[in-house]
Design goal:
single chain, about 350 residues, Rossmann fold, 3 domains, three-stranded mixed β-sheet, nucleotide-binding, GTP-binding, GTP-bd, GTPase activity, Developmentally-regulated GTP-binding protein 2 isoform X2
Length: about 350
């Protein structure tokens, strides 16, 4: 039985198993096996002598955004509208067969936008060049999931499933679990919160499935078995995702209002060029970029050339962007000597 058949059998077993206290250990083991087989599926084949054609492009600009979606949802039209890059767009599926990069110039920042070929169901198993598409998506700072507003929620759930099966976690934070394998001493398990989804026995069963018999485990939040498996695997990518519903000119106003109120969602129409400005503004917020402007002593600030940094950057990061030797020569300002009241 091949890996794909094993994955299919485990998924069917999970689907037909009732979720309750009596089956939680069985389900936990099944999920651990499923994650292990999916990781094996993503490993490059050693028997293949010829290298497959990839389409990753060099990372450039201040941030990278991956544009993914099913065929014929308007990705190429969107790229052509908000960048100076012309991507072939047509009414038939699979117009785009390779990765087409473009640059969004917004608030002084250069944001690299990658138009990836359309994903089909089963992309995580390699169908339709799905592995290459997903591999590029893992290198992005933000994923824009382009969806057809006329298709309801089907596309969104299928894409989330495909990306989730290869370790891409959308709009989620890394589980606050301390995990460290050891050479001996058995499994040390502790938690600082009350656990309702995991138990010490279940944690030990999952670790044994991965042939780990000595480790330190500390839960700092109430996490599920799936989240604990993600920590063990250590190759998960946590990134923000913006759900963009295109073709809103073909649905009712009530449906547009419902989609627009969903979290992390924006409604647009590439055909009628509707709401594209708001989409760029929302994308900027998801990227969490900050504009830093410099000024020479005695002169006004230069607002034409900004230094683009990530949110939370320090003065040291600014110094490194200006010149690598500036940080070592930088002097911190003296503490304030102002006194309250009269001087």
């Amino acid at each position: 039985m091949g890996i794909l058949e094993k994955i299919s059998e485990i998924e069917k077993e999970i689907a037909r198993t009732q979720k309750n206290k009596a089956t939680e250990y069985h389900l936990g083991l099944l999920k651990a096996k499923l994650a292990k087989y999916r990781a094996q599926l993503l490993e490059p084949s050693k028997s293949s002598s010829s290298k497959g054609e990839g389409f990753d492009v060099m990372k450039s600009g201040d941030a990278r955004v991956a544009l993914i979606g099913f065929p014929s949802v308007g990705k190429s039209t969107f790229l052509s509208l908000i960048t100076s890059t012309a991507s072939e767009a047509a009414s038939y599926e699979f117009t785009t067969l390779t990765c087409i990069p473009g640059v969004i110039e917004y608030k002084g920042a250069n944001i690299q936008l990658l138009d990836l070929p359309g994903i089909i169901e089963g992309a995580a198993q390699g169908k339709g060049r799905g592995r290459q598409v997903i591999a590029v998506a893992r290198t992005a700072d933000v994923v824009i999931m382009m969806l057809d507003a006329t298709k309801g929620e089907v596309q969104r759930s299928l894409l989330e499933k495909e990306l989730g099966s290869v370790g891409i976690r959308l709009n989620k934070h890394k589980p606050n679990i301390y995990f460290k394998p050891k050479k001996g001493g058995g499994i040390s398990f502790n938690s600082t919160v009350t656990l309702t989804q995991c138990s010490e026995k279940l944690v030990q069963l999952i670790l044994h499935e991965y042939k780990i018999f000595n480790a330190e485990v500390l839960f700092r939040e109430d996490c599920s078995p799936d989240e604990f498996i993600d920590v063990i695997m250590g190759n998960r990518v946590y990134m923000p995702c913006l759900y963009v519903y295109n073709k809103i000119d073909q649905i009712s106003m009530e449906e547009v209002d419902r989609l627009a109120r969903k979290p992390d969602s924006v409604v647009i129409s590439c055909g009628m060029k509707l709401n594209l400005d708001y989409l760029l503004e929302t994308l900027w917020e998801h990227l969490a970029l900050t504009c830093i402007y410099t000024k020479k002593r005695g002169q006004r600030p230069d607002f034409t050339d900004a230094i683009i940094l990530r949110k939370g950057a320090s003065v040291e990061h600014v110094c490194h962007r200006i010149h690598r030797s500036l940080a070592s020569q930088f002097k911190a300002p003296a503490p304030s000597t102002a006194r309250s009241g009269w001087a």
